[in-house]
Amino acid sequence: MRLAFPLFLSCFSLTAAEITRGPYLQLGHSEGMTIVWRTQGEMEAPVVRYWQEGHAAKSCSGRSILTRGQKSLSAIPEGQLQFEATLTGLQPDHTYQYAIFDGDQRLTPDDASYQLQTHPLIGEERDTRVWVVGDSGTGQIHQRKVHSAMLAYTAESPLDLYLHVGDMAYGQGTDPQFQSRFFEPYQVTLQSIGCWAALGNHEGKSSNGRKGVGPFFDAYVNPTQGESGGIPSGNESYYSFDYGTAHFICLNSYDVDRSEKGKMAQWLKRDLAATGAKWIIGFWHHPPYTKGTHDSDIEIELIEMRESIMPILEAGGVDLVLSGHSHIYERSMLIDKAYHTPTTADGVVLDDGDGHPTGDGAYQKPGEVTPHKGTVAIVTGHGGALGRNSRGVMPIMRSIVLDHGSTILDISGDTLDAVMIDLNGKERDRFQIKKEGQVSHEVIANPRIATRETEERTGAGVLGAPATREAARLAKLAGEKSIPQPLPKKFTPLIPRNDEWSYLAHDQKPETEMWTRVGFDAAEEGWAKGPAGFGYGDSDDRTVFKDMAKKYTEVYIRKEFEIPEGTNLAKLGVAINFDDGFILHINGHQAISRSVRRSPNGKFTIASHEASGFEYYSLKEFAQHFVIGQNVIAIEGFNVSLTSSDFSLDPYLIEDLTAN
């Protein structure tokens, strides 16, 4: 029973400030924590009351709470204020419950889930559970399912730490996007677990890591002076902290100097030299090794993190590096000195086993931190976004999964266990690192090399996934069964002819299948707008792709629209003039295709089809995918070849009003 409980029996005021963000935890260490929240309207006397079970409450107020508004924040809605309460003098590794008050008026619910756990003393051995997620900030169902899967998986053994490897607020990292795509979906976790975050490229569109300004830096309170362990960095975009026997290093791979002589690298060397931690874990956004939706052999941020930063980390004895950006899960073997471009497995693999304790066995490392005794690299950029395809296979990888999910780390004494769980809570990969005694590795001369067969393609919208193949088969069958019909004599347009659509062309492709769903922000993802029809070469196109011939064969268009009350969803149909093929999606569901064949590995074969006028296809079989209200039609358009003389894609959507 909490002795402090009777003190909190105060009434809510109708005029009390309303909490609009949080509360959430930041800047934890063994003796303190920062609690952050926002309100609509001013607070007369902001107070945080906190207590241990069975003890009287203490208060944090006055100068211990920093109030910030539009003048000191880069972006905040009008009329809102942000409060940052710094709690000090706490006991190490203790749990406290807390509540936000305005004077005597309680603003947070009387709920035990509002609690914080201080860090253990640096170097103190303690079982530690860490959630790692990246590229989550879509605001869509897959993000919520990944979070729910983590909560279920950790219900009996809750988290201690939360690491985010960037891109938590698509597409520009704006303040409203942080609110709807990070704080609101994760509130139940953020109110009790501090999130330590890396700056992603999408946050970088509105935040500056060199200057430490923007919505990202408004949201986070990161250490700059070694407040949570480690050497002071003087920059909130890269920092370190300790939790028991583990030392965590967050780096900025986006917009600071990544060279070996840069300030970040020089700080990293000092930080590694100073730590006495048993476990060293680095995390940042751009992966040093990937062939998912990004390619670490050709993209400069990824190359520089591999060539300049990985040597410093491995010389400092790093055990694990975590990243995102590439919308996939990839996990390496135990590697060392894999710095070359392009990356190969030659001369860099110390253990090519699966690392599973009941499989090939755990990866072995010395008990003491020792340079160049092996690193495992994980790309976990699939917490909300997911690639439709991979760009190849990174040869050093031991596990590759194209599905939504996240990674959970368990550190216990001389053992680190890592597991990837998908959005349904299923374990898809597991490995272990064991650190004890003296261990000597020989580089494996002919290591196992990842191939396409290594990939597990199971995610929604992933090319080659069983569900995608089946959807493609049904769409093709529907197209073959749907004999083009004359346009109904009486109809009403839901998407009028020549209406404006968003489109992606010029040899660009969507990274994920989110473009087929309602809520995808096409403008922020760089899509253009234009009237249908789309094409070139036959003088009847309204949006002309002058650069398409001999350069690319695929175009993507989407249109969000309203279906009003009273519409008969079974009477909807599409009129389309096309050359040569198309695949039509309704609210994320593949519905109908013509002249398109998709192979098991996701490749397309297109048959020639001349655009000789509008063909009408009933969508009655797919009525269940429409809803009254907001919908989206998304269409992939295909040309038969690069040398084709023309291309056309000209759709509109109608409701057939003809009597049965």
From TrEMBL:
Calcineurin-like phosphoesterase domain: residues covered: 129-329
A single MF term (Gene Ontology): metal ion binding
Keywords for the protein's UniProt record, in alphabetical order: Signal
UniProt cross-references to InterPro entries, sorted A to Z: Calcineurin-like_PHP, Metallo-depent_PP-like, PAPs_N, Purple_acid_Pase-like_N
Pfam families: Metallophos, Pur_ac_phosph_N
Residue intervals of the Purple acid phosphatase N-terminal domain: 24-105
Protein name per Swiss-Prot or TrEMBL: Calcineurin-like phosphoesterase domain-containing protein
Lineage: Bacteria, Pseudomonadati, Verrucomicrobiota, Verrucomicrobiia, Verrucomicrobiales
